[in-house]
Amino acid sequence: MAIDLPFIWAGIIAFAVLAYVVLDGFDLGVGILFPFFPEKHDRDVMMNSVAPVWDGNETWLVLGGGGLMAVFPLAYATILPALYAPIIAMLLGLIFRGVAFEYRWRTKRGEFLWNGAFAGGSLLAAVAQGVTLGALVQGIPVVNRAYAGAWWDWLTPFSLATGLAVAIGYALLGSTWLVMKTTGKLNEKARRIAFRCCFATIAAMGVVSLWTPFLEPIYLDRWFGWPTAIFSVIVPVLVLGCFALLITGIRNKRDTQPFLAALGLFVLGFAGIGISFYPFIVPPSVTIWEAAAPDSSLGFLLVGAVVLVPMILAYTAYAYWVFRGKIDPEEGYH
Q1: Hey, which CATH number is domain 7-322, 3.60.15.10, 1.20.1600.10, 1.20.1630.10, 3.20.20.80?
Q2: Which of 127, 147, 202, 299 has the least C-beta neighbours within 10 A?
Q3: pLDDT in tens, 133-142
Q4: Which of 43, 33, 30 is nearest to 333 (CA)?
């Protein structure tokens, strides 16, 4: 039986993107929430909560982007010209955020500048990721295996809505992460913010989900045609289940449950996108198999992925295990 290498690689790339979203999402969310915690001590604890893991989380972004270029070169060559602006904005946001993370501890007089860079870079990266997603979902015109759209095609009401939705969702992840990792007044404030963010996130997911099927006929058929219409029932039910766990976890003052429930919302949202997309990698016209590199290249790269991906998973899991539990306010990155 022949091995479907493009399908396997599509799964690997999808997993890398999902891992990046759920892992880097919460530390971007911590940055987005910075303005709501004006006290220096609170901000120090917030940054210390993500200090051991934030840069490792971005490994998945490199894997996803690099893998796309090597494994699906046609997709890479059409998606990037269509989305240069939001992708560059995302990278600039991540750069400012990374530099601010280091420099904030090295200065007193300019600390407010790096606080702004950390919060602004986090917000910019989150919104840019959402806009990129929205522009991809709404479709990229491809003619003769090349991008056939205009420079500003990515900027639409739908892409702006998805940008806002992702930023709100990351704020939810960040607040539930703080609930899990902090104590005292900071914990209580994070819990109150998480309670508000969960309703805002559900509302944003609802708007985007109801909007998406009407962007392309294939989405409408996928969500309301048989047999895939069954997912139109299963996914919302699971989303409501995660929402209930999120609310009860916050109200009952549980530390871990809200964060896991928030992760569940993101996983379900990502699954919904996958259901809408498949088998296209550049909707609505380029499939996984059309965009894939030759099987000889895919097989060669798969050998490396079989070694590399478990290694990344292992050291990521080890880092989270070592730094598990609550943050000691008296110890940290500095």
Answers
A1: 1.20.1630.10
A2: 299
A3: 999 988 888 8
A4: 43
